[in-house]
Amino acid sequence: MHELFYKLIARLPLDFRILYRQFLLRVVDLESLSVQADVERFLGQFAGVLIMLSLVHATVAYLGYTFITEPASRLAFLWHMEHYLIATTMLVAGLVTVISWDATFPDRRDVMVLSPLPVAPRTILFAKMAASAAVMGLAIATLNVASGVMLPLILGAQPGPALGFFQSFPVWWLTLLAASAFLYGSVLTIQGFTALLLPRRIFLRLSAFLQLAAFGLFLGVYFVQPSLTSPAAMAAAESRWILASSPSYWFWALFHQLNGSLPAQLLWLAHRAWVALLLAVAGAVSCLLLCYLHTMKKTAEEPDLVPGSAGFDWMPFFGNSLQTAIALFSIRSFTRSRQHRVAFAFYLAFVFGLALSLLRSELSVAGPIPVSMDFLIPTFLMMFFAVVGLRNVFSLPISLTANWVLRTTQLHGPEDYVAATRRTLILFAAFPVWLISAALSLPIRPITQVAGCLAVLALLGCILVEISLIGLYKVPFTCSYLPGKANVQLIFWGSLIVLFTFIIPGAEFELSALHNPDKYGFMLSILVGLAGALFVYNHQRAKSAVIYYEELPDEVITTLKLSA
Fold it and tell me: Directed axis angle between helix 321-336 and helix 414-425, to 10°?
């Protein structure tokens, strides 16, 4: 089988195979990587995380089906799992699409490097489409490698058609591919028409906002949309607008239509899925062809940057000159770099989703309500994702060819750079989450309880900032990135275990301390002491640290083992 596959690959044109490999590896920006980066290992680690998530989904589906015996409850559980898996697959497909935002359309590097070569534009187009489809297919396959088998097995065991599993299995995977293709095609259509209608420099500026809006839209819909799991709830008149505006329900209905189990009153949902899929695919194909035929020349001729407007130019101060310079450098890195916007937006999407779910619960009550676990846990998670997300994005450089400016102007001690990084983390990660939590809690909760919660949240943010600074002896956005150095799977699952091990008991302890002044004072003193100890530790370690700009793997001494 492998020999046949490689023979088929060998029949493809050589220029197509070379371009396909290069475009496939450009999911991560190669210009920001260390000289010893291992991109394949890095992508493999993320694939491992998705496989573990699929195993979790398969286990939940099997246990739920096994322990739920009442027919109506079992049907509701299966419908919920089907919709959840389709919605999660569409979310991952949407995130992959946004992460590879410019990977399908031609950019300046493609035009300047490939135009002088005897490479046809259609070869570039097909190579980019094949690379994007490979990345998307890998994400969908790894996310559903276990659940995509378990769910058809469960559905095949249900009373119904004789084919059972052999009917549900291909139908389920066809539905997942159709839902992902719809989302991918919709984003390409919007992006392509924008690129065709606007000058390139205006499109590049608008593209940043479209990218962040797509992130927020995907996560917001995923977290906020209600779950309808029973035939009565779906047939209700008040649920029609929810079904009509939720593409995940369209493709859920498409799956049941293909599987022969869709109720007649929901047939219109399946028709909507077919129409949406057709429009998305047709729009994406049309935009790609038009862009490669009409915009490649415009890409080479028009500038990528919009000239600055003359006038009053005032920049805020964030402390001394070094702290202000690093803070402003961080702001401009986000506004000018697609890579950093996407990376940080991934973490901010979780913050945005938690804030939306918290806002929905706040608006559902009519009068003042006391602080509860439903408020404390989301605020803790928001603070964690914001600080950890910004800390991880600091590791991605904005331009390795320009970091010599910061190297030659290193006139301060390393502790000053660490202090500037600390202030940047507080200003752009911890403080905004603190403001959001205050705005969501002050109007409808007791002022004394809110003040106590905000004090604890501020200390928690400072502690997370200090933990993030341990070993961070580099200027944000200036050091090369070494993918594969850390074990992504171990860090991801270990962080989740540690996070949920401490967050629930911590929230319960804080909730009880809000009604006991002595207990609250003890908790506050512990947090202040921990934050102060971490601050002193980082400050002392920073005095003897060396600011570095190149991420290199640890040297390993290999011996021949010739000694006795």
Answer: 50
Residue for token pair 């939720």: 246
Tokens standing for 235? Answer: 């047939």
The values of phi and psi at residue 481, to 5°, are -100, 135
Look-up: residue for tokens 């619960």? 361
> Is residue 273 within 8 Å of 253, Cβ to Cβ?
yes
Length of the chain: 564
> pLDDT (tens digit, 9 = 90+) per residue, 102-128?
667 666 666 667 766 777 777 777 888
- Give the mean model confidence (pLDDT) for residues 295-304: 56
Number of H helices, E strands in the chain: 23, 0
- Cα 167 to Cα 77, 152, 265, 402, distances in angstroms: 20, 8, 23, 57
Q: Is 543 exposed, middle or buried (0-12, 13-18, 19+ CB in 10 A)?
A: exposed
The pLDDT value given to residue 12: 72
Q: Which residues contact 37 (CB under 8 A, 6 or more apart)?
A: 481, 482, 483, 484
Model pLDDT, residue 158: 66
Provide the 8-state DSSP code for 459.
Answer: H
State the Cα–Cα distance between residues 284 and 104, nearest whole angstrom.
11
Cα angle for residues 155, 276, 217 (degrees, 5° grid): 90
Q: Helix 71-99 and helix 200-224: axis angle, to 10°?
A: 160
| Predicted local confidence at residue 8, as pLDDT | 64
Please give the DSSP secondary-structure letter assigned to residue 239.
G
C-alpha span between 269 and 276 (Å, rounded): 11
Q: Which two tokens stand for residue 370?
A: 């006391």
Q: Are 342 and 209 in contact (CB under 8 A)?
A: no
> Distance between CA 78 and CA 154 in Å, rounded?
9
Q: How far apart, in whole angstroms, are the C-alpha atoms of residue 448 and residue 450?
A: 5
Dist CA 546 CA 194 (whole Å): 46
CB 414 within 8 A of CB 491: no
State the Cα–Cα distance between residues 87 and 93, nearest whole angstrom.
10
DSSP 8-state class, residue 237: G
The CA-atom distances, in angstroms, between 294 and each of 121, 297, 298, 410, 467 are: 11, 7, 7, 46, 51
The single-letter code of the amino acid at 35 is: V
* End-to-end C-alpha distance for the chain, whole angstroms: 47
Nearest CA to 475 among 536, 424, 516, 543? Answer: 424
Distance between CA atoms of residues 116 and 111, nearest Å:
8
Query: Cβ distance 538 to 421 under 8 Å?
Result: no
How does pLDDT run across 419-448, given as a tens digit for each residue?
888 888 888 888 888 888 888 777 767 788
